[in-house]
């Protein structure tokens, strides 16, 4: 029975202690405790009955269920029901227009990073954004183009286009193969002559790239919707913050490297597969004498202006002005005007973005060209896009005190990407910079994204063609400066190492693998290494000794806490990790090391003692090959730890000291989240080995999940007396056992 015998409410303020608490109850074995207090299991529902109930519930239709279903499928309906038009509409309008201004230059820049025409970035800022408004649950994130997803998509597009280009050299395109390309050209408002003049690329090549990109978007969107419907949004939990941070920083190096050729005005190929960065910089160094100086100067000027305004001015005025200076749009407009009136392309050979057709593209079905070679990569792109987006959505939700549904978010991302694939778009994700601006500008809901899309629509319909003289190096400068926040993640390494060396190792390994090898391969290596560290953490964990703190029911590790006291004849240890196949043998060795007892060696010592003490010892130890059994009680322990009996007031002939440093071993199992068959076998071996040398092993603080696993293996039936509710229960039982031995010893000596 538990009670509070002294609750006077007095506090020892000098030591920060609370009221004095005293507990008086019997020590519980865990099996007994469960029999007394465990709720009975509910009888299982027959499968046929459960199926009927589910089917009946699914077929039931009423107004309340219909409304709930609509709110579940279209989260915006629930959000807009609580929308405060008077207070929120103006904030969403301001935030939406602000983000829309950012969408214009960033969309064109990141489309170029994906090896696609800049106008594709404008389409991505419109079509998928509207669909996410219908299906998304986050109120602040801004969907559209992002660097990492653009880079991964660009890698697929470039590789497939190179293979297509090589095949074109050996085959003559037929009417069947050319028709889809010409359809794509018509969709974009391009033809062979205008496209060649606008982008310096063959028109059919542009069309093929867009076909690949839309196929990637379709498969990615379909995969995201499928994972969301199957409620497996948890997959991103295996991509921890350290892995994502290292991956995005490594990807930022790739993005930066891909823009160097535009910044220097060099014409070098885009390398794929492993060692991309090394080969790219090798090519840059080789071609450095061919640098276009005017293009390099324009890039440097743009970078300096962007850095000063974004990092210095906007950061300092953000508390006084929630709308930042749209320096990216200013750079784009200024660069376009300067290029047009300065005739940059003809005079200095500066590359421009080329023709941007006016009007919306015609919807077209993706052609799934050579999809077998990149289908799996599309799933990876979808997972990366989801991981980046949902982490940002969770951050915004915590800041503004509302909940999001990760699975519905994945469906929202997939729906936006899938719909965009019919309008020349590639996969979308949430942008950190735009989402931060949307939040700081006062955005209250995804209605801000609708206003942003409306602004982009105006540009697509009427203003887009005016940007065809924009120098490509201006967009490269925008991308390079936007990568600053990703590169700053390197500064977190010192703090990360202090908090967790394992997480720091995950960051470094993922970053180096991405930079040295490739983006995709680096991600795979990072995930595998992260799993490896989970196993390693359980293997490097060691058994720690615990002792009683301040003569109460608290037991703490002796290497961490002071003022601990050992219980005579009792050793308490803990193991702060699950016990399973990967660390079973390590656990045994760690127990031997922590307790100073190796049963096999102790068994040999006890055998030798039996031979030496057979004539004068009052305790006969009979040893066989499997166990040691005490036939007579052990005499009282003397002050020096020996066992013997007094004779006529004088010390009896000294008997050899008991080689066992303790008689009871208590293992704290509270930190063991699970055990497997190997772990159960390890416990059996440990209990039997120590029992063989006269030491009893108790288990305390075992979780219900671990108990159920052991119960299924019949462990709790055989060793029910060894398993206790808490460590304190086990220690009290051990002390009671030792006291009983002493009393028996005293009775034995008295009658001698």
TrEMBL record:
Domain STAS: 560-734
Transmembrane intervals: 110-135, 216-239, 296-313, 325-342, 374-398, 410-429, 449-467, 474-493, 505-535
Top-level taxon of the source organism: Eukaryota
Cellular compartments annotated: Membrane
Keywords, comma-separated and alphabetical: Membrane, Transmembrane, Transmembrane helix
UniProt record, GO biological process: transmembrane transport
Matches recorded under Gene3D superfamilies: STAS domain
Residue ranges of the region described as Disordered: 633-656
One CC-aspect GO term: membrane
Membrane topology: Multi-pass membrane protein
Protein name: STAS domain-containing protein
Annotated source species: Littorina saxatilis
């Amino acid at each position: 029975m538990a009670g509070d015998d002294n609750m006077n409410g007095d506090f020892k303020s000098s030591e920060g202690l609370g009221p004095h608490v005293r507990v008086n109850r019997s020590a519980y074995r865990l099996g007994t405790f469960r029999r007394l207090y465990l709720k009975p299991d509910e009888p299982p529902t027959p499968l046929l009955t459960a199926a009927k109930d589910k089917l009946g519930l699914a077929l039931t239709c009423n107004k309340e269920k219909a409304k709930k279903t609509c709110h579940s499928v279209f989260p915006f309906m629930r959000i807009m029901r609580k929308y405060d038009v008077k207070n929120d509409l103006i904030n969403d309008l301001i935030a939406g227009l602000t983000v829309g201004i950012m969408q214009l230059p960033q969309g064109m820049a990141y489309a170029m990073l994906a090896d696609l025409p800049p106008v594709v970035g404008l389409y991505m800022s419109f079509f998928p954004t509207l669909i996410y408004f219908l299906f998304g649950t986050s109120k602040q994130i801004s969907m559209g183009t992002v660097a990492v997803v653009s880079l991964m998509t660009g890698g697929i597009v470039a590789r497939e286009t190179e293979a297509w280009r090589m095949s074109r050299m050996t085959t003559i395109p037929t009417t069947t193969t050319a028709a889809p390309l010409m359809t794509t050209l018509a969709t974009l408002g391009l033809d062979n002559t205008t496209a060649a003049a606008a982008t310096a690329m063959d028109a059919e090549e542009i069309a093929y790239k867009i076909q690949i990109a839309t196929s990637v978007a379709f498969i990615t969107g379909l995969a995201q919707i499928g994972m969301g419907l199957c409620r497996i949004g948890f997959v991103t939990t295996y991509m921890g913050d350290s892995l994502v941070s290292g991956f995005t920083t490594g990807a930022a190096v790739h993005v930066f490297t891909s823009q160097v050729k535009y910044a220097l005005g060099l014409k070098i190929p885009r390398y794929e597969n492993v060692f991309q960065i090394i080969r790219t910089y090798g090519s840059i160094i080789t071609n450095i004498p061919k640098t276009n100086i005017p293009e390099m100067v324009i890039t440097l000027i743009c970078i300096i202006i962007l850095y000063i305004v974004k990092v210095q001015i906007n950061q300092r005025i953000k508390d006084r002005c929630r709308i930042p200076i749209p320096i990216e749009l200013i750079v784009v407009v200024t660069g376009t005007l300067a290029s047009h009136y300065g005739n940059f392309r003809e005079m200095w050979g500066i590359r421009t973005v080329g023709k941007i057709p006016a009007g919306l593209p015609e919807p077209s079905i993706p052609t799934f060209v050579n999809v077998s070679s990149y289908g799996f990569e599309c799933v990876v792109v979808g997972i990366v896009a989801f991981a980046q987006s949902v982490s940002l959505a969770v951050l915004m939700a915590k800041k503004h005190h509302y909940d999001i549904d990760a699975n519905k978010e994945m469906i929202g991302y997939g729906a936006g990407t899938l719909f965009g694939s019919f309008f020349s778009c590639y996969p979308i994700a949430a942008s950190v910079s735009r989402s931060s601006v949307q939040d700081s500008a006062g955005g209250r809901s995804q209605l801000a994204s609708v206003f942003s899309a409306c602004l982009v629509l105006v540009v697509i319909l009427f203003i887009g063609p005016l940007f065809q003289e924009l120098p490509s190096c201006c967009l490269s400068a925008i991308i390079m400066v936007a990568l600053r926040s990703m590169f700053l993640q390197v500064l977190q390494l010192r703090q990360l190492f202090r908090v967790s060396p394992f997480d720091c190792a995950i960051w470094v390994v993922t970053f180096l693998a991405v930079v040295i090898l490739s983006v995709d391969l680096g991600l795979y290596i990072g995930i595998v290494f992260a799993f490896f560290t989970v196993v390693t953490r359980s293997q490097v964990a060691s058994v720690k000794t615990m002792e009683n703190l301040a003569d109460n029911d608290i037991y703490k590790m002796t290497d961490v806490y002071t003022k601990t006291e050992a219980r005579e004849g009792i050793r308490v240890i803990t193991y702060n990790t699950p016990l399973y196949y990967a660390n079973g043998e390590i656990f045994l060795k760690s127990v031997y090391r922590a307790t100073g007892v190796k049963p096999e060696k102790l068994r040999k010592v006890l055998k030798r003692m039996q031979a030496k003490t057979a004539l004068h010892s009052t305790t006969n130890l009979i040893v066989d090959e499997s166990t040691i059994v005490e036939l007579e009680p052990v005499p009282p322990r003397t002050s020096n730890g020996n066992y013997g009996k007094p004779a006529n007031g004088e010390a009896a002939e000294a008997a050899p000291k008991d080689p066992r440093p303790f008689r009871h071993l208590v293992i704290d199992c509270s930190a063991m989240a699970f055990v497997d068959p190997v772990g159960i076998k390890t416990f059996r071996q440990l209990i039997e080995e120590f029992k063989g040398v006269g030491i009893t092993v108790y288990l305390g603080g075992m979780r219900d999940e671990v108990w159920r696993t052991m119960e299924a293996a019949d462990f709790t039936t055989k060793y029910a007396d060894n398993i206790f509710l808490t460590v304190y229960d086990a220690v009290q039982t051990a002390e009671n056992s030792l006291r009983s031995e002493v009393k028996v010893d005293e009775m034995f000596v008295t009658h001698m």
